[in-house]
Structures are given as C-alpha cells and as structure tokens.
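Hi there, hope your week has been kind to you so far. Do you reckon you could talk me through the fold, stretch by stretch? Thanks so much in advance, here it is.
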Amino acid sequence: MGGVFDIIVIGSGIAGLSFALRSAGYGHRVAIVTKKHQAESNTNYAQGGIAVVTSKSDDFELHVGDTLISGDGLCDEGVVKQIVEEGPARVKELIQLGLEFTRIDEGAYSLGKEGGHSKRRILHVADMTGKAIETALLNAVNRHPLITTYEHSFAIDLITLQKLERAGHMRSGEGNRVVGLYVLDVFSGKVATFSAQAVMLSSGGAGHVYPFTTNPPIATGDGIAMAYRAGVPIRNMEFIQFHPTTLYSPSGKRFLISEAVRGEGAMLRNRDGERFMEACDARAELAPRDVVARAIDAEMKKSGSPHLWLDISHQPRAFLKERFPSIFQTCLGEGLDISKDWIPVVPAAHYLCGGVVTNLRAETSLAGLYACGEVACTGLHGANRLASNSLLEALVMAYNGADSVHGYLAKGSEIPDNMPGWIDGEMSDPDERVVLTHNWEELRRAMWDYVGIVRTTKRLKRAMKRIENLSAEINEYYWNFKVEPLLLELRNMIVVGELIVRCALKRKESRGLHYTLDYPGKAEKGLDTTLTL
C-alpha cells in the first residue's frame, strides 16, 4: 500500500467517485482511499433522490427560490443559481453511465415531492436512489485502468509542505500546499505514505457524533477534522439537520423513513392520533425539515412520548410496495404493514450543512486541497438544506472540482523526494481501550443531550467542558499508543464536536437548523460562522 499518484480521493460516495471518473478521464492517476468497503457511504443510504429541474411545469427560478427559502437567509444566491442550472447536465451523465430513474406508464420520469419544494422535481429509483447511483458509479470506477481503490484504508492526516518544514524534513520557501497523506491499513495495522499533488476530500458528514443518526458508521467527520488540523477554515458547523422521521426502535437503531413518504400524503400524528403540523406551519407535513423536526420534538416533550406516528395507511398497498419497496419491507420486518399500521417515528441526526469552506471550483484555502459533497460548505444549503439538494451538489461540485484540479496539475507542482514515513506511538496496552469506548459514548451522549434540536447557552457550555476534557485525554492517548480506527475516529469526532459547539455559541440568534431558547429571534442580517485553527 502507498505510492505516488497525481490525485488522492478520500471517500467513495457520489462526490468522490464522480470526481475520480472525470479526473481519470483527463489521464490522471487516481487513488481512492476509503476506510470501509467501497460501497459504504452516505450516498448508498440516500432514499429520496436528486432534486433537478426536468419537468416543463418547473423551472430554475422556482428551484433556486425554494432553496433560498429553506436556507433561511444564509445561502449564497450565486452558488445556488449555478448548481441548480448545471444539475440537468450532470444528471444526464449519470444516465449515460446506465442509471435508470423510475418512470411512469407514459415513459416520463416519476418525480417525487419533498418538504420545501414547490414542484415535483425529485428524480428517484424507487426509494433506493443512492444505492442505484453508487452501483452505477462503482461499476465505471472499477473498470477504469487509471483508478486504484484502497478499501479498509483509513486516512489519518494530510501531509503539507508547512508540516514537513516544521518537522525539519525540508525547507521549501514556496509557501504551503498539500503533498500527500498518511493512511492506515485497517487489517495490517501499518501506516503507509501516499504522495500526490492534489487531495480531494469527499469523506461525507459527521452523523455519528450523535448516538441517533441515519448515517452509516463511517460518518465520523474525518475530512473536516483533517482539514481543520491543516489550518483550513471551517464554516457553519452549528447547522445539523435532524431528519424528522426515522423509524423508532427501542434498541436505538434508526432507519430513515424518506421525506418522499410525506410527499405522497403521509400525515404526522401525536400520541393521541391527532394531526399537529397544520397548526405549526401552512405547509404542514411538507414544511422544511427544521420546522418539522422542532414540531415533533415539542410534541414529544409535551406528551412524554418516546415517538410520534407517521400515517400513510390511506394509500393503496400496491402503490406503497412499488413506490417504497425498501421502506415497506423494512417496516414489515418490524411487524408493521404501512398500508394498515402507523409508523412510529423520531428525529435523528441526518445531514451537516456546514463543513470545509470551498468556492464553486471545490478549492479550499490550502493549495492542492479540494473538497466536495457533505464534507464541504459551498454556500448552497445555508442554514438548512432543501431536501434532495445534496446529491445534486455532489455531482456538480465533483465535476467542477475535477476541472479545477486538472488546471492545478498542469502547473506542475513537484512532490518532495523522500517523504518521511509515519512514526507510531510505542505503547499498545489492550486494557487501555476502555478509554476509547467510554469516551466514544460520553461524547455522543453529551452532543445529544446538550447540542440537539433545541439548544441553550448553558447546555452548549456544558457540552464544551466535556469535549475539552475528552480532547485532552484522547490527544495524550493518540501520541502514546499505536493508531487504530476507533482511536482515529474518536479523535476526529471530538474535533468535529468542538467545532459544532463553538459555532453554535457564536450564533446569537435562532436561524434555520440552529434554535436556541436564549436567542429565539432572528438577527436582521444573516452571517456565517467561520473557524480556523
């Protein structure tokens, strides 16, 4: 493992795979580094689809308007306009790879509708869109001779010229830029050095900072933490989107009940079986996710119920099985026939609207470092993501990023000779692993209890104290013990947790996904919260 490449891609979701394909098409040698199996990503779990204008009854202006409303005053309108307008071309390229979106009898695409959308515009593959996209992209990637995929390989940290100079390995005098990456082979426990002129962060979000999430276990904020440690600005981390409707299970496991279910007429009911969303917002169940999540949270606290109900039982069984095959079968496995039974639902951490600051070319402030997908903050989502805009953003930004990296590589930045190898800690005491497991649970519980859907300054400060203690303990562990996946993930999650809390403390208002009882009003002008090491 290890070696010299033109580009290293961290992550194997829609963003990373799309970027790798286009970059390899330019003739660049690409390494994809992914810490689990290559198909394990947030993309693979995406049920809803891709929000894109394809219908004659829809237009770009409407899609832009819906996105701006959902973003609650913090979207970059220029970014929104460009991503929305480039969407159809990028989706067409997916179709050319063999992806077949669901169609209706007349041959036209079946378009779903989700919260915040004024029109039906969600292209989908039943309720397994992400999996279908992932499969199409992986098939193309695995056929390409210039792309090498390293599974079960954990990216530890970026190697930069500045870091090499500080360690006394070299003197360049040419400023700072990325020159490589340290990567842990999960099975062998050995750390290899990867050299490259450019690195694309497409490592996804950070849902597992919370104990209840729709995200797969890989979503531990690795790319965000790596970028922050390298001095790259991080923005708007307080905006954590809690998906309003995940299947409730006493075990704590969460399964996403797609917003598309509400788009097909599902109604939210409280413990007494009464609808309540109409009293909260004129859009009722199809209000933006922050509105729906807070309404559910308030109803649960008012009644003391561990969950509420989602009722789609008025729809025919045949329709539900065809439109939502995965959801139908999963619920059936839990003893629920959704054509007859109400679905017990609760909110869970779902999507990170902030992240590594980039421009529309996926460039960060650090030369050679790029980011796209959920790990990045482009200005599209603002304070709250419009449903199904995430896959759209990933496709567009991966395309733009590949073009940008191609131009950067043409400048011919050299990779230093004799890149230093990894120096590991000397201790390896299995009895000490209890520190990792205990701190893992303590961090996630603190985030859920104090940095959830509704916040206060007092709760946020309590969370910060716990995170500071955890950070000191884990940093000591990191420098003295041999690295392993659990340690690396916890180290990254602590960084991400701190960034979320610090951003939340800086925002003296309630806007979008950040709601605090101490500042329930909205400031006259919306400002971003940006942090740099």
